[in-house]
Amino acid sequence: MQSPPKAALWSLSRLRCLLLWPKSSGQPEKLRPTAYLDGLRGFAAFLVYWHHHELWPRPPNKTNILEEGFGFENNHYFVAYPGIRNFFGGGHFAVSTFFVISGYVLSAKPLSLIQAGDQAKLADNLSSALFRRWLRLYIPLICTTFLFMTSWHAFGLWIEATKPQATYGAEIWHWYTQVKNFTFIFNSGSVPWLTYNFHLWSIPVEFKGSIVIYTALLAFSRCTKNARLLCTVFLLFYFMYIVDGWYCALFTAGMLLCDLDQLAAKDELPSFLNRLQPFKTIIFYHLLVISLYLGGVPVHGTDINNLAKNRGWYYLSYLKPQAFFDYKWFYLWWAAVLLVASTPRISWLKRFFETSFCQYLGRVSFSLYLVHGPVLWTLGDRLYSAVGLARGQEQVVHIAKWVNIFPLPMTGPFGLEVAFLVPHLILLPVTFYCAEVVTRAFDEPSVKFPQWLFQRTLGRPAKIPQ
Ligand SMILES: *[C@@H]1O[C@H](CO)[C@@H](O)[C@H](O)[C@H]1NC(C)=O
Ligand SMILES: *[C@@H]1O[C@H](CO)[C@@H](O)[C@H](O)[C@H]1NC(C)=O
Q1: Cβ(343)–Cβ(350) below 8 Å
Q2: Closest Cα to residue 38, out of 361, 432, 334?
Q3: Non-local CB neighbours of 463 within 8 Å, separated by 6+ positions
Q4: CA geometry: angle at 165 spanning 160 and 170, to 5°?
Q5: Measuring CA to CA, which residue among 47, 101, 93, 97 is closest to residue 297?
Q6: Over the stretch 271-300, which tens digit does the pLDDT of each residue have?
Q7: Ligand 2: distance of its center to the CA of 188 in Å?
């Protein structure tokens, strides 16, 4: 046992590691072959941050500029131009990309075991993966929403879209009833988001998609190569064209890409794909352009007739499968799949995602996702109000002290106005600092703890591979 002063010193040094920049990590690590996927995920997480900020301080009739296509209702803005628009309103594109990457990464190890015919190791691997998945996804969510809820209750911070409970006890109960429903993916009777952090709707979706991947891998694990590929393609077709399984289709596509990549590395691709090899580069440049175009699908509402009214989308609107309710996911499926497929085959793009900037974004991506909303709704809302970009009447009533105390000019193109950009001198460092702390405090432990726990549940002397 540690003596009390020693324990205090130890906790203090832990706290210092947690809160102080930078992390002394020593030598830079060698990049993994799939490091570009981490970089892509990180960059995509940053686009989610940027998208939510672009929307927040603008009235609804202005956000349409980003959410409808270029030229819609005679609005011609730089930020809405095809290709460019992905950098300003690319949040949904980013989320679709997360899911394809997840499907790819989750299936990498199991697929290599399946291809090697190693059934015993596959069983070990899948059991460990399934055991850990829920904990890995939900521990950070539970901890961060609890802290967020506690902090604004303790400091009496006003936050739009939340109704504070009378007491902290009632608040905890309110939080608890929401979070517990949120962790139960088979619950169909409650709203699919948390009022404590709306953006986290994608976490249960991530968990569901993971289960689709692990079960599909297990189901196809005894098939021959061609049968496995055919079954995967059929599953994709089912999710895309027969039922509205958009997120299942995104995950499954990642799994298929991973299978094909691993086969290609061993020169075992089906022969018709092999014949395309000489034209690889030119093909993937085209696919990238198509991806960037489709990634900019107008996302205002779910009415396909509205999509058809957007310039450049009339004929494309006929492609939507009958089964899809929210058409955007159909186009985003293609966009995300083509992006993930073409990135490793276009060398400058791959190198960009391997830069230390993108790798850093990748390391903190989950935490950035978890904290960017709360920082926006607390600090962001107040800073935007201060510079003259109050979101609406509610801000004028509830945070009156902040409104217009430091008005800045709206010079600059839409989406890049001075008044909008200046608050980011504070918001970016604060958000990234919070993301770094959450990475160290919750994200990394939520990977290690389930591993430790899983090992503890095994009877000795079983040895389970990672
Ligand atoms: C957009 O909404 C604001 C208030 O939210 C209003 O003042 C403005 O006139 C509207 N603009 C248009 C073009 O409808
Ligand atoms: C939780 O789920 C149950 C059962 O579906 C539902 O009745 C209840 O209203 C939900 N609670 C919340 C806070 O969403």
Answers
A1: yes
A2: 361
A3: none
A4: 145
A5: 93
A6: 888 888 888 899 999 999 999 999 999 998
A7: 9
Which SS3 state, helix, strand or coil, does residue 209 take? helix
CA of 389 to the centre of ligand 1 (A): 14
Using DSSP, state whether 405 is helix, strand or coil. coil
Question: How far is C-alpha 102 from the geometric centre of its chain's CA atoms?
Answer: 9
Name the CA dihedral angle for 444, 449, 454, 459, rounded to a multiple of 10 degrees.
130
CA–CA separation, 446 and 383 (whole Å): 32
Pick from 55, 61, 63, 68 the residue to mutate for probing ligand 1's pocket: most ligand atoms within 8 Å of its CB.
Answer: 61
pTM of structure:
0.92
Is the CB–ligand 2 distance for residue 192 below 6 Å? Answer: no
Note the pLDDT tens digit of each residue in 433-451. Answer: 999 999 999 999 999 999 9
Is residue 336 within 8 A of residue 99, CB to CB? The reply is yes
d(CA 146, CA 437): 15
Q: For the chain, what's the residue count?
A: 466
Which residue type, as a one-letter code, is found at position 79?
V
Q: What is the DSSP secondary structure assignment for residue 239, as one 8-state letter?
A: I
* Ligand 1 atom nearest to 61, measured from its CA: 1
> Residues near ligand 1 with C-beta < 6 Å?
59, 61
Q: Are 304 and 320 in contact (CB under 8 A)?
A: yes
What is the domain partition of the chain in residue ranges? 37-346
184 CA from centroid of ligand 2 (Å):
11
Q: What is the dihedral of CA 27, 32, 34, 35, to 10 degrees?
A: 10
